[in-house]
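The protein record filed here.
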Amino acid sequence: MSGLRLTEGSRGLAASVAVEGAPLTRTQVPYVTGSSVLGMKCADGVVIACDTMASYGTLARFKSLSRMHQVSPNCILGVGGDYSDFQQLQTMVDAEMTAQYVANDGLTLSPKAIHSFLARHMYHRRCKVDPLWNTVIVAGFDKGEGVLSLVDLFGTAFSSDVLATGFGLHLGLPLLRNAHRPDITVAEAKGVLEDILKVLFYRDARTNDVVQLASVTAAGVEIGKMTKLKTEWGYKSFVEGARVGDDSSW
């Protein structure tokens, strides 16, 4: 085979095909990326939260992009990583949900089934060495209880009472574990997640102070409006910085 040949009218492919004969690929290096997504399972549902910034490298390029996507009346996705791959995930999941609807067999994908579907697709892409550069938190409510699961770009999939992606995996997850209780309510969890997002805003250069929270309960999915965090930069340790012998971490 002579391979794929580019013509004058193939300019759209030029960015994806580096040399003659190379396969058509998607994102190989993330360019526009989102940072942390947080999730907590509650007694009466699930809450997820994230900021609304997408960075172009180290540039805070887009400051009001939602990184949440409602899949069904009882399931929502929170996605970190490459934003264009997130859009591809949206298209793929919506197409699967449409196919289920068109089948008209009375069946719908549960949150656990959606998580399994994503895990298999992400592992398939990983095996092709053409991954979707995302970490996805799946939040849902099914059979009277909350569902909180995660899948990454390798297809690694698991469920937990608290989850985090990005920088939040390192700094936010311990705070989530300390705050979680089996009887915590959705209302309480929203306050906890908002406080942790504030900590991440102080510490993560790829985060902004505009955040979005969403909950999934027996009543369905509720995605909140983008809101601005109330922050304080006048603390003494913030202004003066770290000194030998003090408790500042700066």
The chain has one domain: 31-224. Residues 31-224 form a domain with the Glutamine Phosphoribosylpyrophosphate, subunit 1, domain 1 fold (CATH 3.60.20.10).
